[in-house]
Backbone:
């Protein structure tokens, strides 16, 4: 599908276009990234689109194959919302609030696209708990419903927008990524990803 950068920043818009990409300038005051991509979809004006994928800007290390896996599972399972998770490689990640975790209802051995049971920033639970990645795929109708809902208490408390869906009875499927990417949440993450990008 087509790739579009949704941004509130004119400098980012120009940089993307100068490098041959497509970008849409959105309003500055959006509560979440999902609200922003819905505005971009409306500006884009393509009525035939069935699924929209939101790959967050702080996840530049996601593998193309993993993106394709999520897309295929969304379509074959007719899921409302799907996201991805990766195996946790370091024990300190369980306590790191910058690393969002997801717990699945079933193990990936039993179900390759299980529902999310919970999302958390810190946890002592290690059974069926994985590193949640900043990628979502939405059926367009579900995306429209999502942005019409008020922010939920859990969403505001934990600063995790996926709770808006779960608190309103919208289930989220989770696919397991082949690789755990580096998310850019701190300066250390930025320096690490900058070094990796030098070799790509």
Residues:
């Amino acid at each position: 599908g087509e790739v579009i950068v949704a941004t509130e920043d004119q400098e980012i818009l120009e940089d993307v276009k100068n490098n041959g990409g497509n970008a849409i300038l959105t309003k500055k005051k959006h509560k979440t990234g999902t609200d922003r991509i819905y505005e971009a979809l409306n500006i884009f004006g393509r009525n035939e689109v069935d699924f929209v994928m939101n790959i967050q800007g702080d996840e530049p290390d996601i593998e193309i194959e993993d993106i394709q896996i999520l897309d295929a599972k969304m379509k074959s399972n007719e899921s409302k919302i799907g996201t991805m998770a990766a195996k946790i490689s370091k024990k300190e990640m369980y306590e790191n609030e910058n690393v969002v975790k997801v717990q699945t209802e079933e193990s990936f051995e039993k179900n390759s696209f299980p529902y999310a049971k919970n999302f958390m920033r810190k946890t002592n639970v290690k059974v069926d708990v994985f590193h949640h990645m900043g990628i979502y795929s939405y059926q367009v109708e579900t995306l429209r419903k999502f942005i019409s809902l008020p922010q939920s208490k859990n969403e505001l408390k934990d600063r995790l927008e996926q709770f808006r869906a779960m608190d309103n009875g919208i289930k989220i499927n989770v696919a397991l990524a082949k690789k755990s990417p580096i998310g850019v949440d701190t300066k250390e993450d930025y320096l690490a990803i900058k070094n990796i990008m030098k070799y790509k």
Summary: Residues 150 and 164 are 8 Å apart (CA to CA). The chain has a mean pLDDT of 92.
